Amino acid sequence: xxxxxxxxxxxxxxxxxxxxxxxxxxxxxxxxxxxxxxxxxxxxxxxxxxxxxxxxxxxxxxxxxxxxxxxxxxxxxxxxxxxxxxxxxxxxxxxxxxxxxxxxxxxxxxxxxxxxxxxxxxxxxxxxxxxxxxxxxxxxxxxxxxxxxxxxxxxxxxxxxxxxxxxxxxxxxxxxxxxxxxxxxxxxxxxxxxxxxxxxxxxxxxxxxxxxxxxxxxxxxxxxxxxxxxxxxxxxxxxxxxxxxxxxxxxxxxxxxxxxxxxxxxxxxxxxxxxxxxxxxxxxxxxxxxxxxxxxxxxxxxxxxxxxxxxxxxxxxxxxxxxxxxxxxxxxxxxxxxxxxxxxxxxxx
Amino acid sequence: xxxxxxxxxxxxxxxxxxxxxxxxxxxxxxxxxxxxxxxxxxxxxxxxxxxxxxxxxxxxxxxxxxxxxxxxxxxxxxxxxxxxxxxxxxxxxxxxxxxxxxxxxxxxxxxxxxxxxxxxxxxxxxxxxxxxxxxxxxxxxxxxxxxxxxxxxxxxxxxxxxxxxxxxxxxxxxxxxxxxxxxxxxxxxxxxxxxxxxxxxxxxxxxxxxxxxxxxxxxxxxxxxxxxxxxxxxxxxxxxxxxxxxxxxxxxxxxxxxxxxxxxxxxxxxxxxxxxxxxxxxxxxxxxxxxxxxxxxxxxxxxxxxxxxxxxxxxxxxxxxxxxxxxxxxxxxxxxxxxxxxxxxxxxx
Amino acid sequence: xxxxxxxxxxxxxxxxxxxxxxxxxxxxxxxxxxxxxxxxxxxxxxxxxxxxxxxxxxxxxxxxxxxxxxxxxxxxxxxxxxxxxxxxxxxxxxxxxxxxxxxxxxxxxxxxxxxxxxxxxxxxxxxxxxxxxxxxxxxxxxxxxxxxxxxxxxxxxxxxxxxxxxxxxxxxxxxxxxxxxxxxxxxxxxxxxxxxxxxxxxxxxxxxxxxxxxxxxxxxxxxxxxxxxxxxxxxxxxxxxxxxxxxxxxxxxxxxxxxxxxxxxxxxxxxxxxxxxxxxxxxxxxxxxxxxxxxxxxxxxxxxxxxxxxxxxxxxxxxxxxxxxxxxxxxxxxxxxxxxxxxxxxxxx
Amino acid sequence: xxxxxxxxxxxxxxxxxxxxxxxxxxxxxxxxxxxxxxxxxxxxxxxxxxxxxxxxxxxxxxxxxxxxxxxxxxxxxxxxxxxxxxxxxxxxxxxxxxxxxxxxxxxxxxxxxxxxxxxxxxxxxxxxxxxxxxxxxxxxxxxxxxxxxxxxxxxxxxxxxxxxxxxxxxxxxxxxxxxxxxxxxxxxxxxxxxxxxxxxxxxxxxxxxxxxxxxxxxxxxxxxxxxxxxxxxxxxxxxxxxxxxxxxxxxxxxxxxxxxxxxxxxxxxxxxxxxxxxxxxxxxxxxxxxxxxxxxxxxxxxxxxxxxxxxxxxxxxxxxxxxxxxxxxxxxxxxxxxxxxxxxxxxxx
Lengths: 349, 349, 349, 349
What we know:
Chain A is of the alpha/beta class. Chain A is 39% helix and 16% strand. Chain A has helices at 19-33, 46-49, 61-64, 88-98, 110-123, 147-168, 183-191, 206-218, 256-268, 288-307, 326-329, 338-345, and strands spanning 6-11, 37-41, 56-58, 103-108, 127-131, 171-176, 196-198, 224-229, 272-276, 312-317, 320-325. In chain A, the strands form 2 sheets. Chain A has a 7-stranded mixed beta sheet, with helices on both faces. In chain A, strands 7-8-6-9 form a 4-stranded parallel beta sheet, with helices on both faces. Residues 242-252 of chain A have low confidence and may be disordered. Chains A, B, C, D: Pathway: Carbohydrate degradation; glycolysis; D-glyceraldehyde 3-phosphate and glycerone phosphate from D-glucose: step 3/4.
């Protein structure tokens, strides 16, 4: 196989604080130390599938020196997946060739890494992966970058909201990211000392939650915080609230935060509100933890390129950054194990 | 008139960062220096209208020494208004007498201070007011405490969200507090460098806003931030979006953030999202600015009690804390003047 | 006089959070709205006295759009003063002419604005000034930008340090910026709830300070925080400590923080440490308050250029940005008035 | 052996953000769930060696519910070591008996845990240890709580200082905690993107550092940040600076930050300053990471008490909290391995 000269790099899927840390480390090591050309590819697979002018461009050390503190990704991102339409994968491969890109660092989640793996397996594309998800739900690595920042932001939100809840004697439900895995909510619920934390992995018992707040009220604290993942669902049979029925008798259900607030108000008689953190959780400057983790990922990914460790992905194990196969990496979703959730129960109430 | 021996203090209406700063300063000066008894009254006028056990309690210097950093109010708050039901004002007066409270420091907004003023005018109650609203819409004072904290939180939110908007090439609409006055949005829009800021005082021109984002897209920046007050309204004739119509053809309009996001997406073709900051904006530790302002308010209010300046309210004028009449204080809502709004226009785009 | 075509802009003296806010607003208004050429001048008067290649360069709207959040100054700064050496002022004037700069926005403190004033008075240079000092010691304006950020940083430092002081039962002396004026220390001492605050304007009474901490110890709190301006001095006759004498018997006195810590330890028997905040206080992203103030200063300075208001400086009065004469502006240092310092006394102990 | 009824808990050594997290979790699990009496012991071993009134007191769930966010330790701390004076260990054992304390949770560093281990080995005291050091230098655990907070604070400091360094074209040396192990400096140097990082584990080459800054100046960036551990030493033969010699010709060397700043100024001709972060790094509210880690440590320590796992210590391994023997725990100092330090080199310059 021909020697690697030009290394492409792209970021796919939702942005995560730390992406620029990976980009910086890969560029400084690959271009600055190893002497490769590095090509930035804009907007994930989109920039390889249908590159517009400027979508594939040289990345120099001077371009990345000061980007570690920045949230988001200087490469831009998209959810384009070349395996969704026949012929697109071939187009990606052709565009790589035409642009002289003979190796690829793909930074992304399940979807992006799944594409990377198939391009490697099916076309022999020389690819190194770097896992990215603020959801922390990849089984192949102890932690993903962006997760610590998301937990920190949600924790700070709970800290802020608590004083209002207490002053107004209210329950406030904080809706936190996490469709399938409750990691961010678990972390923020523990760090923010929520009075109850609900995650998609464990079916919620609304009556138990309501009882807990009634007990708090009895001991003189008619207020509290519920941390809930957006992915938590409540069986329709538990929905009792009437307040939000429209003229046709339809219950207008918003997100789980809103629904849950209505239910708790109904059941406890305590004024209950909700906040949806939404996009606040994924942006802004990364925590020190995420800057370090993303930088270390990037360095290791660059070494993997140098060593020709194709089809591999970087991962954290204890204090070490290791390589695992992309196959292994994209196999399984890591959800919050029951015993970790039960740890929270000590603090409920 | 009998000498003042026992000074009551209450906080009414929505909580604001800095309330504990006022409470601390009043207590330390009135109890610590002047030798008055200070009585904390729980839950605003509710604690005087229908006091439960413990709702009127001695506040000592040791109780307040370390509360300056805390958001919310250690006295609790409510929206109870004794002028909403016949006979309630008399009950308040009677309860003050029975509890030996012969002067009152009332900390609150329009509503709370309006009650204070009528109790003073109609019953001769010895009252000193302290303005509180994070909305900053009181004409009698240059600034209200809580406002700086609210602007800071909203600004930080915009800072965070910008990197996501840019990475994903999205418009993100940030809905900020302010039903009638756009001060917080004006401040956060300026400090957060929003690409457009919309406030209740100025009718929005959706087409102009959409054009601006189209121009941004043309020059290579198909993304941006809109800061919008919750109180902004859009004439129904401008609503074009179809996405959220339900089975009966009804447009389900959420808050202005959601509506606006839908409209901008429709008009620009750019993916547009929204975030509602909600309760995040009023809680948590106050900024240094609000700690100082609230402390100075509290000190001046205590002096007003000592000097018998009843029916007055503390206010900031330039660098000075002055006294103004409660009548003046509650007269007029201060909205954002047109020329201040126009200052923002320089940065639109 | 010929029409203004090209407006130069420079920043002089110590950096302050908010400088980029002024630069951005001046550029966006002057270049973007009024159609002037704007020339950035590097390193304060140095860039006009002895311009190297690239020291005078075109500033475009696109260069400044996203700099509001950045601390420091994109123009760089220096303490060069062209009135310190004969002939230098003439050189500055000549370089302005040669570079076609026919008006100047000078952003700086006493020193920078003093030069601006003399260039205006002596050579008829068309200059508009913008006050900059984190020390807040200019009498012509209610507040200077950078001050709020400095107070915030020092306050956060005190918040952090308090938990250590308490856990270890120590006094910790926090040395804060301010050679001649104690504004930052006054603000941080109030907002951080320091147990004692010492500023250059008021002679410290070490015995009284020591007594206060002894009393705290007696009531069960053998710890506390002293906020002290770097410019506070202690008469040599009060120096009693022996710990730090060197082999020759010389007392090695560090800054006031270190000295004071030694003295308090000696007098109280309580373990006493110190921290010098130093450069931490002037850097980093500006607070929302400083972003707004600096932006409004910049807008008003741009208007002054348009209106030919030469020899004037922007200033804050209440909520308004006004113009004052540069003469007035640089006349007097504003120190902390005694009554504001006495406000703190309520919280000492 | 008699059943455990009353569990004592103490914190020793320097404070670390997260101590209250451990205290809260141990108390809520031991008292709230298992039904033990929990006794708080004030000021580390001091409170057991020579308990004053109130130094051994009941800790209830209600005392700890809301302390997770607080820095420091509600138990207070000291450096008292009962193995420093003959007979003291026996006194500790006697005081435990007299106060009915039949098991002990000892939270501390090398010193505190070393005592715990000997009390266990020599007197059969039932003890469970919890490691605490912001220095992160314990080989038995992947990470210690407090470390993440310390790195975060130092990183934020570097972020702030960078803008000043750049605006003034200065080198600024940031002196960071770490006498023997460079972990905090390593982390903050990486997360803060310092231009050079120096740690005690690797002998510094001043000439190489100076060359690096000269090269930066040549490419137009005559400024930068050095992160240096307080424990770094420079051989006297490398000291060239003359600026700070006193009248007797003695070089007055301050800490390494000051010394290094002098040397770099001398060697590069670039204005160089320094900042000593000192006590700022260990106080204040813990990061979300440290709140979670300390809470999980506390829960596991409580389980160890219930299970009678005496002589053990909790530790983090990957994502798991495990038990290791106290012997193992206090055996070895974990310093920064050479390859982790070399990771930083990619970013030097």
